[in-house]
Amino acid sequence: MTIFKHILLISSFAFIFACNKQVPQEEGMIFFEGGEITIGLATGHEFEIPSFKNKVSPFFLDIHPVTVAQFRKFVEATGYKTEAENFGNSLVWDKDSVIEDCSDINHNPLQRTQEPICQGWRLIDGANWIYPYGPDEPKAQDDHPVTQISWNDAAAYAKWAGKRLPHEYEWEFAAKNGDPEYYDQYSWGNTLEDSSGSLQANVWQGNFPFNDLAKDGFIGTSPVKIFGKTPKGLTDMGGNVWEWCDNTFELYKGNPSYFKYNPNEKAIRGGSFLCDPQVCHGYRVTARNHCTKETGSVHTGFRCAKSYSTEKAVASK
Ligand SMILES: [Ca+2]
Ligand SMILES: [Ca+2]
Questions:
Q1: Model confidence pLDDT, tens digit, residues 242-254
Q2: C-alpha 114 – ligand 1 centre gap (Å)
Q3: 2-42, pLDDT tens digit by residue?
Q4: What does CATH list as the number for 35-85+141-315?
Q5: Contact between residue 304 and residue 158 where contact means Cβ atoms under 8 Å apart
């Protein structure tokens, strides 16, 4: 056999191997191979700079935020009581009670331990994951993301489900479709509308904070899986609800902003139905915010991650 034939044979094997390479599977989750990726954006908002390279290990991420129905299964199995239920109240956005400028909403941590700085937020008695706006308002719908969940509640659910919360670098890796040099604004591309004019995320349209035109069809949360399908198959990465991440919120190394480090504040990602592009534009892939970990609110939920171990996968074969 000539050298040429040997090379042809070897390349054919390599091709067949590559074609047969199995993508690890977890029900309801998408696998990301990991690798080095650029986190942040050199020209980004205050907390997104400077950009830097970071290596992420292989992981799975839930296709969509945990729904009300999924959270109910956890409660029914364990008798778990959320922090909002134990406190007896939780934070609700009430546009009718906005009495001062909320243009700085993205920079004020949302926390129940202090008087909310932005006057649109109110602690409402009886607001919880079943009644996100309080007991006099409609119940949360089963296929919507669960809200009024603190970081502690989200971590408890994840542990019960055999998962964990994602680090925000994993979240950003997934939002950027694992592309090491991804510069589109959103997980699904660079524009909020697709080619047919449909909005790709449930966010705010109109004059924030007074008038949400709801051109996307929703004031408040929307059912999961109907907005923003990414090339990898995730949905709702931008808009609908902010999503708790596992890590404490810190400024990126070299960021000149003033931020008082607080180990009780966790990172949140992805933006929500309250995000206006003129104000926080929090549904961009690099956008980040922070919240104290005992705080539940009407616009924050979560999705889970799971580590992938190559050793375990080989051992189980
Ligand atoms: Ca909306
Ligand atoms: Ca989101």
A1: 999 999 999 999 9
A2: 28
A3: 444 444 444 444 444 444 568 999 999 999 999 999 999 99
A4: 3.90.1580.10
A5: yes
